[in-house]
Structures are given as structure tokens and as C-alpha cells.
């Protein structure tokens, strides 16, 4: 069963939150962070992308950059831009996108739950990316940014959250760039804290929705600290890491689409003919065509849109992986026809999050940068949970969660 605890969050005063908050470290590059931070010395980018404090071209993996992160974290606290709450408590974080709101509980997730599989993952992680985040956690002795979990719907927690949502939030702002609303409430009442802890203790599992590398890094650093402490008891703060947990039914997963640079030596006619072996191919004309159902794809080629309906027998609805459209398209189109086998390393393919719309696929093909585009029907949260429960791993580049968590609203110290 899932074990969580409240914690003393480190966070900006209400009047400074819009100065401090930022996008997550992994959704923008160094130059974008440098531009967004501008002359704002309170921007969290100085902690999560501290290479912006060095000359352009400085590697984000330079040892001096990690040390700068810790120096800036100390400075933010010394100057009162970040302050630690006096009481261990939970927090409620709401995001509103296109009129739809999802509510998350900010908790301390248990390191051992990650290590023993109670916190379930559905993606592979890369050791180099884990080590980068581990260095960041070690040097700051804190989880600066949260990870993004899902939990099975829970009526008790839903009622508690809605009660707080009817009150004045601690933070309430519209973020630049994404234009979405972000709100935060503090759960300091001891009875409500116990209720949250007890309801999570009834859950057989939590699911990583986004942030697999941050989850791995946070858990591994916690385990390191436990091993290095001869007086380890198991209740130390480093045994927990910061997560925002959302009810699974509230989450929005957008399509994660593909654009390819070439057709593996085929002509357009030859490519379409090859597709007909496993798909019913229909010319939909020049107007943008979006997949309407599972196992239907949209292809953009030579200024025309096509629907591709996977034929019976090309997928297995009883297999949590085999039923996925990302698996169907990877096997039957990218690998079998285009000879693109490793999606993580191939330079012949790129990926476009669904928030950009299918117009972005059309633009990149029409510009000549790409030869064709493939749009997929979104993965569902239930599919992700089924895969995680089965112990299997999703194909790469399968999910795109939106909105992204803003960083800098709360930080979790490990001591």
C-alpha cells in the first residue's frame, strides 16, 4: 500500500510567486531559459537551469553549474524569496487548461515504494539522465521540482479537495508561455492531513505519469543517504521525495505525433502501397484530418491527408502493449516500412506534442524539413495503468501530458 507524508514546503511568499515560478527544466533548452529569465534574478531558472549564469555555450553538465544551483538555492532562501513553512502539511495544486481543471495533492512519496514497485513506472530511464538529476538533488539536498503521479479515483479525497477549492487559494496566477491558470491551497488542518495519509494507505499503487528520471533520481539519492547513515531509522526526510498526485480520471493526455525526414527510398506511391498491406488507406483531401478513434492514424504526405485504419489481426486488444497505437505505428510503419527501429536514437524522426496541433505537422512537412507526418490517437490513462500493473514498458515517446507542472511553487528539503 502507498505510504506518504506531509512536509514543510519551501516556497515563495504569495507576492513573489510569479517572479519565482518557471516551466520545468526539461521542456526548454538553455537559451530559452536564459531568454525567459531575462533580468529577473528571482527566476527559478537560476536554480534549475543555472548554466544561464555562465557564458553562452557553457554545458549544463559542467560541475560548476551544479555548484551554482546550490549557491543560488541558498541565496533565494537568504533573501527571503523562498521560505520554509513551519508545519508539516500537504498542499493542493490545481491547473486549469481550456476551461478544465485538474487537482493534485502535493505529498512526500516514500522512497521504498519506488524501489519495491508500489510506485509503478511505464517508461525506461537512461542512466545519464538519472545521474544528472541525482547530482542536482545531491548538491541542493532537496527536490527542487516535483514529479507527476496518478492515483486511482477516490471519493473521500475528491470531497476534501473540493472543499478547499471553494476557498481562497494561497497562489492564483496565469502563467506566461502556456497561458494556463495555476492555483495552490495549503492543507494544515490535522484531521485533513490524517485523512489524506490514511486514504493513500489504502491504495495498492501510485503511477508515475510524467517525470520518470526525476522519480528515479530522487529515490536513488534517498537510498544513498539511508545507506550512508549508520543511525538510519527510516523516518528521516530523505526517505521521501516530492510528488504531485492527481486522480487518474482528471488527467489529460494529448497525442504525441511523429514527423519523418524520408521514406526510406520509397516514392510516395510506393509508400502508400506498402501501407495498404496492414491498413485501410483513405485519401481525406487537403483539409487537416485528426484521428477519431483507437487504431486510426492520420498521414500527411504531399499536401494530402490520409486516414490509416489498422486492419484486424495487426494488433492484440488483449495485450496491454499490443493494443497501443504507438506500438502499431512503430512496428508496421516506422520499423517495417521506413526502417526506423530505435526511436530514441534515430536522427530520421522527430516528435511533436499534441498541444501544437496538427497544423504544426503540416508546417514542418510543407517547409521541406520533413517528408511526411503521422498523427496518433492519444493513449489513455487506463492504458498506462494497465501497462504499469503488468510490469511492461511502453514504447518510447508515447505520452504527452498537458498542462505541465510549474516549478518553484513548492520545494522539498531532504533534511
Number of helices: 13
SS content category: alpha+beta
What would you call the shape?
A: globular
- What share of residues are in beta strands? 15-25%
Provide an overview of this structure.
There is one protein chain. This protein is of the alpha+beta class. The chain is built from 13 helices and 21 strands. It has helices at 17-20, 30-37, 45-48, 63-78, 111-116, 127-140, 155-165, 190-200, 212-228, 268-275, 325-335, 358-366, 381-390; strands at 4-5, 10-11, 83-84, 90-97, 100-110, 119-120, 142-143, 147-151, 171-174, 181-187, 206-210, 240-247, 253-254, 256-260, 279-285, 296-301, 304-310, 349-353, 372-375, 400-401, 412-413. The strands form 5 sheets. Strands 1, 4, 5, 6, 8, 9, 10, 11 and 12 form a 9-stranded mixed sheet that branches. Helix 4 (63-78) runs parallel beside helix 6 (127-140). It is globular and about 65 Å long.
Short structural description:
By secondary structure, this protein is of the alpha+beta class. About 30% of the residues lie in helices and about 25% in strands. Strands 1, 4, 5, 6, 8, 9, 10, 11 and 12 form a 9-stranded mixed sheet that branches. The protein has a 6-stranded antiparallel sheet with strand order 15-17-16-19-14-18, with helices on both faces.
Amino acid at each position: 500500500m502507498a505510504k506518504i507524508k506531509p512536509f514543510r514546503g519551501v516556497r515563495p511568499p504569495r507576492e513573489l510567486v510569479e517572479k519565482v515560478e518557471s516551466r520545468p527544466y526539461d521542456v526548454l533548452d538553455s537559451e530559452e531559459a536564459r531568454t525567459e529569465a531575462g533580468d529577473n534574478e528571482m527566476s527559478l531558472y537560476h536554480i534549475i537551469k543555472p548554466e544561464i549564469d555562465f557564458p553562452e555555450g557553457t554545458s549544463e553538465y559542467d560541475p560548476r553549474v551544479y555548484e551554482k544551483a546550490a549557491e543560488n538555492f541558498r541565496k533565494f532562501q537568504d533573501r527571503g524569496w523562498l521560505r520554509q513553512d513551519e508545519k508539516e502539511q500537504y498542499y493542493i495544486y490545481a491547473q486549469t487548461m481550456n476551461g478544465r481543471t485538474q487537482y493534485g495533492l502535493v505529498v512526500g512519496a516514500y522512497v521504498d515504494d519506488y524501489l519495491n514497485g508500489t510506485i509503478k513506472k511505464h517508461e525506461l530511464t537512461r542512466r545519464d539522465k538519472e545521474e544528472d538529476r541525482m547530482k542536482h538533488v545531491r548538491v541542493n539536498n532537496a527536490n527542487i521540482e516535483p514529479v507527476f503521479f496518478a492515483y486511482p479515483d477516490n471519493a473521500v479525497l475528491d470531497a476534501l479537495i473540493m472543499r478547499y477549492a471553494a476557498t481562497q487559494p494561497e497562489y492564483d496566477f496565469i502563467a506566461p508561455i502556456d497561458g494556463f491558470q495555476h492555483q495552490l491551497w495549503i492543507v494544515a488542518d490535522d484531521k485533513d492531513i490524517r485523512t489524506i495519509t490514511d486514504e493513500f494507505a489504502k491504495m495498492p499503487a501510485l503511477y508515475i505519469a510524467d517525470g520518470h528520471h526525476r522519480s528515479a533520481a530522487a529515490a536513488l539519492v534517498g537510498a544513498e543517504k539511508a545507506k550512508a547513515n549508520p543511525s538510519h531509522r527510516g523516518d528521516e526526510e530523505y526517505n521521501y521525495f516530492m510528488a504531485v498526485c492527481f486522480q487518474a480520471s482528471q488527467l489529460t493526455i494529448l497525442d504525441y505525433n511523429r514527423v519523418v525526414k524520408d521514406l526510406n527510398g520509397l516514392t510516395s506511391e510506393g509508400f502508400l502501397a506498402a501501407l495498404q498491406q496492414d491498413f485501410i488507406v483513405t485519401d481525406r483531401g487537403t483539409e487537416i484530418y485528426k484521428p477519431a478513434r483507437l487504431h486510426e492514424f492520420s498521414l500527411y504526405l504531399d499536401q494530402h491527408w490520409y486516414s490509416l485504419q489498422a486492419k484486424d489481426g495487426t494488433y492484440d486488444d488483449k495485450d496491454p502493449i499490443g493494443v497501443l497505437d504507438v506500438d502499431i505505428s512503430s512496428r508496421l510503419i516506422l520499423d517495417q516500412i521506413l526502417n526506423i527501429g530505435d526511436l530514441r536514437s534515430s536522427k530520421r524522426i522527430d516528435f511533436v506534442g499534441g498541444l501544437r496541433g496538427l497544423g504544426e505537422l503540416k508546417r514542418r512537412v510543407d517547409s521541406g524539413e520533413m517528408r511526411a507526418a503521422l498523427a496518433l490517437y492519444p493513449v489513455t490513462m487506463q492504458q498506462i495503468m494497465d501497462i504499469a500493473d503488468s510490469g511492461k514498458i511502453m514504447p518510447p515517446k508515447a505520452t504527452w501530458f498537458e498542462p505541465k507542472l510549474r516549478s518553484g511553487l513548492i520545494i522539498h528539503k531532504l533534511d
